[in-house]
Amino acid sequence: MTISREEFTARKDRNKRIRVVFQIFFLLAVVAVGVYVLFTLKAYSPFTQQNVKFSGDKGFISLAYFGVARNGNQNLIGVDRLRDHLQGLKNAGYVTITQQDILNYYQTGKALPEKSLYLIFEDGRRDTAIFSQKILEDLNFKATILTYPEKFEKNDPKFLMPKELRELEKNTFWEMGTNGYRLAFINVFDRYDNYLGELDPLEHASVASYLGRKYNHYLMDYIRDEYGIPKESQTRMKERISYDYQTLQTIYTQQLGYVPGMYILMHSNTGSFGNNDKVSAVNEQWINTLFKMNFNREGFAFNQRNSSIYDLTRMQPQAYWYTNHLLMRIKYDINQDLPFVTGDSNKQKAWETLKGAAEFQEETIVLTSLPKDRGLLRLKNSNDFGDLKLSTRLKGNKLGLQKIYLRADEALNRFVAVNIYNNVLYVTEKINGTEKELYQVNLDEYDGKERLSVAEDKKAAEIREFETFIKYADSAEKAKIYTARLVDKSRENAPNIASGAPEYIPELSVLAKGDRLLALALRGDKLTIMLDGKEAVKELQLSNNNKAGAVYLETAWGGYGWSQRNLADDVYDGVFEKLLITENTGSDKEKVLYDSSMQGFEAVVFKLKQYWSALINWFVVNL
Fold first, then answer.
1. Which tens digits make up the pLDDT trace of 561-609?
2. Which residues are CB-neighbours of 414 under 8 A, at least 6 positions away?
3. Which H/E stretch holds residue 95?
4. Same domain as 611, residue 578
5. What is the pLDDT of residues 351-406, one digit of tens each?
6. Total domains, the chain
7. Which residue in 402, 455, 499, 558 is deepest, having the highest Cβ count within 10 Å?
8. Are residue 400 and residue 533 in the same domain, yes or no?
9. Does any domain span residue 197?
10. For the chain, how many helices (H) and strands (E)?
11. What is the span of the domain harbouring residue 256?
């Protein structure tokens, strides 16, 4: 089939017009993103200009975020999640306070608002300032951003430079603080007690997956050999530590015109200012000389007047925490009531919250446990649910419990339950108050994850370490030595599990994300489970007790788990996405009993918002 020249020209012009429309649309989107991200249109209003409550001495809470990224990752909180956190605090009545407010509180006894928040962003990342600025403006929150002056000298593009810091101060939503001169590690051992010595952040990141908790920060101790014996004298230790503080003082004075008054000693929670009394004394002398306050502890948010201004504490919210997770931790820190967020009130009406806190977001139910305890929801009007099909995506972290009860009585003395607890899938049944396990499978085994022996994992650790030492060697001679060691190590034969060697079983990390598509089919005395599109168990035999009952959702803390940073988090967020429950009668069209998915116009709007967010993300990444 052929077309005329006129038709071809008309089609070409039409396509050109379509391209122009899309180009204009993209250009407008770029402009919108630029305005949104880069321009400050407001000024901070301190609490003294607001109508805030004062009701006795309630102290203040302090939160410290590592940093902010557009979509977030394991360590950096996403923009939307950060906004949710801070909006939740704003709704609870919190206002931000400044460094001067804290000084006045401790030095002159000046009162603070009933709900006072001191907000910190650590590490001085450029993306933190970009992505949190608008949130601070919208909520009228002020924050302190911490920096490492070593980054100024290296002109590292990921971090804010002095000129940018001065601009942040001018826009009124920021104050300056410091994490110290640099981030560096000493006395480092891997999990097999191989001595690695001193590592900078890049070296540390390269071998982090093979490290335990046996390492220290540069200012916390003597530099020691593999036997724990100091490699430096007391005089040399004092000179080394003093050099960091003196260099910090020089750089800040030259670049900012002053030394920030707020300091966080890395790492915290030593009970003093170091892991050794003599080291602590050196740090304490410099801290008192250079700074007006020091956050010396981490894990708890609450500070009171009876604390030293040089021994303050902060909580470091993690990127995976939902808003109620943060509020739950704060509530039990300050021992005061806080309002939890509930989300969509219409969707909330379908459920009864029996324990913990529940938030209903778009298509997701987030159930937050009590500290060292559980969260529990009951689906109203589900007491007569018998044969049914249920599907949902479980997106809570691997460490913890996400549990679904079927055919449950009111006292939970009778039920069939499917749960994932600490990365193991369980099926249990309870009759007359006695719970019995019917099935379990470790999900790493279910996924076919490669199993290594301890010897194989140790060899892999040592290979990675030699590769790191080669990459970051400060001389060709050292690189040559490590290369020879790498060749020898690579040739070693590590016994595997098949040969009888013990298996390496990693500890479950508190940061390990979970994402499982679970589908259940319950009919009569048989239960079939599909997990991630594969059949996990087919027609599992249940008891003959087929009484109908209610649907419950439960979440629970799974233990402290593994974390190099020694996080002590005892709250858990269970995440149930797109929960769908239908009858299971065998007909082609089953009756829907419950559906958390968006419907109709609401679903269209939700999809458009997702597309728009994806478009913004693309421009932010590619601008």
1. 655 455 678 999 999 999 999 999 988 889 999 999 987 666 666 666 6
2. 407, 408, 430, 431, 432, 545, 547, 549
3. strand 95-96
4. yes
5. 999 999 999 999 999 999 999 999 999 999 999 999 999 999 999 999 999 999 99
6. 3
7. 402
8. yes
9. no
10. 15, 29
11. 47-181+248-332
